Amino acid sequence: xDINIGEVCILVKDLDEAAKFYRTVLGLEPTQxxxxxxxxxxxxxxIDYNFNGVVLTLMAPTGEDSTILNHKLEKRGEGxxxxxxxxxxxxxxxKRCNDAGIRLVDSWxxxxxRGGDNGYTDPRxxxxxxxxxxxxGAREAHGGI
Length: 145
Known about the structure:
Layout: E1 3-11, H1 15-24, E2 32-36, E3 44-51, E4 54-60, H2 67-76, E5 79-87, H3 90-99, E6 104-105, E7 119-121, E8 130-135
């Protein structure tokens, strides 16, 4: 199976404050800035930086409606939220996770079934690190903010 790291996502409290480091110290400009899932518990805003095909995402809650991210920040603080592997055999990953007793869920916390195109591990099953799996070539389209 062919696997590549596609994204590292860092959860931060203040998106603009976090972005200052990448601009002032590393001289980087974002490749995109966007907001997703407005008005839902999973709402977030983000800035992406592209490093030779690997995306570094800074992600922050949009406000009080972002209950999922606000809970993570209260419980664990800022830091790596997850990283994403792009795989050429998504169904193989789904089967292997199921066989190993590792729950793989989609963005809405529903179990991923064969043919699924996005899955996250429960961090308790993967050494306190949430891992996302996506098929190779899959990229989410984000709207700018």
